Amino acid sequence: MRPKLNLLSSELVQQIIGEGFALLMNPGIQVHNDEALSLLADAGAEVDKENKIAKIPEKIARQALDTRPSEFYLYDLDGNQAVHYGGDSLQFTPGSGGITILDSETQKQRQALTEDYTKFIKLVEMLPQIDAQSTAFITSDVPEGIGDLYRLYLALNFMRKPIITGAFEKETWWTMKDMLVAVVGSEKELAEKPIAVFDVCPSPPLKWSDITCQNLIDCAKYNIPAQLISMPMTGANSPVTLAGAVVQHTAESLSGVTINQLVNPGSPIVWGGSPATFDMRKGTTPMGAIGTWMMNCAYVQVGKELGMPTHSYLGMSDAKIVDAQCGLESSSAFFAALAGANMVSGSGMMDYESCLSYEKIVIDAETLGMAKRLVAGIDGRQTPIALNIIQELGHNGSYLGHPHTKKWFREELYFPSDVIDRDTLETWEKKGSKSTWDRAQDRMKELLTKYQPSPISDEVKKELRDITTKAANKVGMEKLPDLSFD
Amino acid sequence: MSQEMFDKLAEAVIEGETNDAESLAKEALKKGLDPLLCITEGLTKGIQEVGELFALGEYFLPELISGANAMKTAIDIFEPALLVGGQVREVAGTIVIGTVKGDLHEIGKTLVGTMLTANGFKVVDIGANKSASEFIDAIKDSGADIVGASALLTTTMLQQKKLIEALVEAGLRDKVKVMVGGAPVTESFCKEIGADGYAENATSAIDLAFRLVDVPVKQTTS
Question: Does the beta carbon of B184 lie under 8 angstroms from any beta carbon of chain A?
Answer without folding.
Answer: yes
